[in-house]
Amino acid sequence: MDGDGNNIYLAGRAPQAGAGSKIVRPYTGGSDAFAVSLKIDGNINWVSFQGGTGDDKGYGIALDVNDDVYLIGYTRQPGLANTRHPAGTYDALSRCRA
Fold it and tell me: Does residue 78 sit in helix, strand or coil?
């Protein structure tokens, strides 16, 4: 939840979409990480997918003092834009929204 208590943030993993799937993802690979911001009433503010050709997973959300949103997770795709690997090759921290 943000500092004002107006938005809720969730992180997760979107599996690979199969034929006929209603899941829409901008990346390819086994799975993609995502972050979603919900209004307190449950309506969606935004969704951000992060990923590459390998498996990517979102494990959590962090907010800084300005309520900038960071997706914490795992990626098999080195060199993604706005992504850092602070604890090794596959751990990732990615800025989603400012």
Answer: coil
